[in-house]
Amino acid sequence: MKADTVGAGPRDEGRRAEAGPHMAVSGVGLELAVADESELQAAAGALGRYLAPGDCIALSGPLGAGKTTFTRGLAAALGVDPGVVTSPTFALLHHYHGRLPLCHADTYRLDDPAELWELGLADCLAERQAVVVIEWAERLRESLPPERLDVTITWPRPAASQALPAGRVLQAVGRGRRGQELVEAWRQALGLGLAAGGRADARAGP
Ligand SMILES: Nc1ncnc2c1ncn2[C@@H]1O[C@H](COP(=O)(O)OP(=O)(O)O)[C@@H](O)[C@H]1O
Ligand SMILES: [Mg+2]
User: What is the CATH number of the domain that holds 33?
Assistant: First the structure.
């Protein structure tokens, strides 16, 4: 797993600190390259251990990028059997019960993604009893809660052939204070250490 932290915008460019193959700087973001599905789930699990009721993870990325796979990794860390986690295609909102409750929503099938609010997402967010994960969260845009962690999953480069590569790139941006806390916790869980003063222990592994 290779991890970089990314800044919030152009102003952060000058604060980047090069350190071997990995970089870590203070900022509100994290960029992580994973080689395959098990690494993606492990990365999600590293985040999942820090999640608390009321946290919201907003997942974006194209079909097949790995949003549901990521949710399985989170679920496992929350004590939910990852085997039962599927795309909420028909119910649109799934509730799982592990060490913490998990509310898993998907806007993909909805013509009007805001319908998800009436289908129970608003209650899940307001009650703050569960961790809330939303797939295709970009479709909800400004109606997303201001305190959240945005995670975008993409391929590292356009596929050269029909066969899709196993590698993925995860970009996380913490929104609000809790979102930034989650980025920091995730960064530490991945072995990146604290980004004190703009520099950090930039090793992402041994
Ligand atoms: N590194 C990877 N991370 C996640 N999924 C991967 C990876 N490599 C291959 N895959 C495959 O890609 C598909 C991702 O599907 P899914 O998680 O349902 O995507 P989404 O929810 O974003 O549409 C699965 O078939 C999975 O086996
Ligand atoms: Mg999905």
Answer: 3.40.50.300
Residue 91 lies in a domain: yes
Partners of 102 in the β-ladder: 96, 131
Task: Return the pLDDT at 86.
Answer: 87
Q: How many domains is the chain built from?
A: 1
Atom number of ligand 1 nearest to Cα 59: 22
Q: What is the pLDDT of residues 154-202, one digit of tens each?
A: 998 765 666 778 999 999 999 999 999 999 999 999 986 554 333 333 3
* CA dist., res. 178 & res. 185, Å (int): 10
In a domain? residue 180: yes
Is 185 inside a domain boundary?
yes
Which ligand 1 atom lies nearest to the CA of residue 166? 8
Any domain includes 33: yes
- Tens digit of each residue's pLDDT (9 = 90 or more) over 39-77: 999 999 999 999 999 999 999 999 999 999 999 999 999
Ligand 1-lining residues (CB < 6 angstroms): 34, 36-37, 40, 61, 63-69, 87, 135, 166, 168
CB–CB of 41/66 below 8 Å?
Answer: no
Give the Å distance between the CA of 64 and the centre of ligand 1.
5
- Pocket test of ligand 1: the residue of 60, 63, 69 to mutate, having most ligand atoms within 8 Å of its CB, is 69
At 59 the three-state DSSP class reads strand
